[in-house]
Amino acid sequence: MNAIPALLDHLVLATPDLAATVADFTRRTGVTPAPGGTHVGLGTRNHLVSLGGARYLEIIGPDPEQSEPGQPRPFDVDGFTAPHTVTWAISPPDLDAAIESARAQGYDPGSAQAMSRRRPDGTLLQWRLTDGDDAHPSGLVPFLIDWGTSLHPTASGLPTTPLLSLSATAPDPDEIRRLLTALGTNLDLTTGPVGMSFTVDTPRGPVTFH
């Protein structure tokens, strides 16, 4: 099994306290995540770290400068008491074709929704992704993303901690594997409670996050 899934775009580390989690990542790795931007109206913002190539880590949490969004924040960040690797994203060559292919194989990843955020330098990033409401509840099945004509987040010179491996546990790994196959990707899966972990290479040696 390849330690890095096919088509991987990014990992999502959700946290109830973004500043504290960014500080902890910096302390453990010696690498400081870069400010990504705000998700206006959703009540969140993020910091980013390149995982090597066109892959990155998104650390996302509540934005204290935004008012309460009046709806649950993305990735259920309000429901956590500690940082948690919640899900991941893949970037297929053709998003719409990948959705149709998955549906033909019995898995509906959801329809593509348009989203955007503005980088700290003012650049507007726009993308489409499959609706998380339709995703597998475990978070182990990735959502799909298409950056369109926007620059990929890794093209802005992010600090880097190369991804060494990504793995997960699930009560029924074969169920997850079938859905991953429908999406044209893979994940190192073993039997256990639902959970994900990843290991990055850093100036302080390999560091694992859960």
From TrEMBL:
Residues 8-183 form the Glyoxalase-like domain. SUPFAM superfamilies: Glyoxalase/Bleomycin resistance protein/Dihydroxybiphenyl dioxygenase. InterPro entries: Glyas_Bleomycin-R_OHBP_Dase (IPR029068), Glyoxalase-like_dom (IPR025870). This is VOC family protein. It comes from Streptomyces cyaneochromogenes.
